[in-house]
Amino acid sequence: DNDEFYSLAGGINEVAVWPRALSGREIDGLFKAKEKQFPMPPQPLEITHGPFVNWVDRDTVRLEWETTSPMRAKVVFRSQGGQRLETSSDKPATRHVVTLNNLLPDAEYTYRISSQGADGREYESRKPYSFDASFYYRLPDKSNAFSPFPNDDLSSVIQAAAKRIVAQSGINKGYCLMLGSAEGRLAYELARQTQLQIVVVEPDAVKAQAIQKKLNKAGLYGVRVSVHHGALDELPYGPYFANLIVSGSMLMDGEFPGPDAAELWRVLRPAGGVAMLGQAKGGLKPDALRQWFDKAGVKCVVRSDAGGIWATVKREKLKGAGDWTHQYGSPDNTANSRDDLVRGDMGILWWGEPGPKPFPDRGGRNPAPLAANGRLFVQADRMIYGMDAYNGSILWTLSAPGIRRSNMPRDGSNMAASDDYLYLAGGRYALGIDAQTGERKLRFSAPKGRNWGFMAVAGNQLLGSSVKPNSAYVADAGEWYNDEKKAPEIARMASDSLFSFDRRTGKQLWKHTGGLVMNSSITIADGVVYFVESRNDEPAKLATSRVAPGSLNKQHLVALDQVTGRKLWEKPVDFSKCEVMLYLLHSEGTLVATGTDSKKTYHTYAYDVSSPSLRFKDKPQTNPDVPKLWEDHHTAAKDHHGGLLQHPLVVKEVFYSDNRAFDLRTGKMVRAVLPQRRGCGTMAASNHSMFYRAHFHGMWDLEANKQIQFEGIRSGCWLGIIPAQGLMLAPG
Q1: CA 676/CA 698 separation, integer angstroms
Q2: Edge-to-edge, what's the strand order for the sheet holding 415-417?
Q3: How far is CA 303 from CA 84, 188, 606, in A?
Q4: pLDDT tens column, 21-51
Q5: Nearest CA to 644 among 493, 518, 482?
Q6: Which helix or strand (DSSP H or E) is residue 155 part of?
Q7: Can you tell me the distance from the alpha carbon of 700 to that of 706, in angstroms, rounded to the nearest whole number?
Q8: Would you give the distance in Å from CA 548 to the centre of its chain?
Q9: What is this structure's pTM?
Q10: Are strands 301-305 and 697-701 parallel, antiparallel or unpaired?
């Protein structure tokens, strides 16, 4: 009846009937009354960037995130023990920064973010995030440490010398080795002015004991400073451990710490380690300093001024050491760091934090660790670690609950590294993180309405791809992604665009759109971006970028100019037999596609892309002459626990796949049996060795054809051991 008004207010089974029409004010009052009686539940809060949790100090964190529209924010932390912490902001904003104090040191917390919008409605994060307060690795701050030394002229000299060392070396974290004690004064000042862990070596036992007592009185001994009694020319430490080396005996008395600089050089960290020895006041001569270093074949820079005379050495990268900057080594996907040093007998260099607790289940096939310029980057379970590759110091951590990636065989990693930055993608944005400090300095946006997919660094460019939101695999339900018959597990991540930014400024350089680009195929080498693209329009209608392999047909092999994004050529191909996974790699002018089918067969196709005619044309070439060098089809040596997922490797001119090795250019089989892997890991190579998951960490010495196991430790289920920086690195 037109004279009656029916209301189902408050979301309950209630019908109110009025015999007359109500005014708008009356209707509004009715709904407000019902909303007060039966409040609406909070709406899902759309967080466009973050959240990120950063430590301020041991019991304080700063939480940052962004929302689309201005809102007032509130955060509630709850520990398993019942502690409740809450903070809120007064003014509406799109960028939110709040601080929480009084965190318990080893508590595990969950937290929710809630906001009030301009419409007065309440919004809340879709699910609780987690934060573990035990993942705190900073050394205790001792900037206000009690001084056990008299406030005399010598203290002023030592204080100024320490300040000079810190400023000129640029070293503030890691390990400092002090040769000769300077009565403990220099150790005290460096501990007060930096975040260094300091190891003092004192040849005189009586002096060493006296210094221990003084530094213990200052609250530094055993906390920030260790004092060891021993000879300066035969140090009991492994190689490469010291980020900074100084000499207290030279500073105080002008005495050289040993006959020459050989021991100093042995323990100095490569890729940026600094030795800075000098005398603030005294008769030390520049030529004497140079000669002391020269005897060990070490070149130094000597400076003298009113502050004294100082010799400085900065150690470069190890000659022959390789980097592991991408999921499979480099953007060419060869899974080879090209490291010439990782070979032969090996021993433990360091063993330390963070340990296994921060890491996700091994079966998710998680992103590989990365290593560049002496640093190691590890993606744990929504925790990112920046570490010193040579001594294990944790440089920085980032808690980022929105960043997670798994199922690498069907996708690409969300990390890539350079000498100066770690690039990390999560959601719509990618971050440029200062590799040494962990500061988030740059931000790169995927196209509107899309998230970041694939990521790579090539020269001065950051390359990426775009996928639909909520497409990435995250393995939160314990998935193993191992069954080739389970459609959800083998769906391939396919991007709808590729793009490039200047990696240091964030300026976008180009964007490519066409078909659907299979992330696992994107390969960059010699200034060319290669990938396999499907021209089937149907998958584009899906709500997700996870596409069943059978739908990724009408395939083309495409090549773009890396710098400009200009299409060089495209060629129709048929890799439909590669159902379970599809990989692409490039080496020595050879482009290789490989994958397996559900019938347990490996399929490999090798093309010659070395001809200059494929690059220097005014217009893109359609179906150019790209010679097929060879192809191979063989039954997999193993059809379980990742046997059909093995990523290939190239070492020099040999292509390794599954249980066989082929000449890269001819396809001639050069080896029919490779070392037997166990579990579902895949191999990683240097120029002389391969590393893999066996009963323990496994190593295959290629030259000696010898297998070695490092007993007591074992990697995860994909690629967790990398040969880089002259080391075998195996975090997690």
Answers
A1: 10
A2: 415-417, 421-426, 429-434, 440-445
A3: 56, 25, 57
A4: 667 677 666 656 655 666 678 899 999 999 9
A5: 482
A6: helix 153-169
A7: 6
A8: 29
A9: 0.93
A10: unpaired
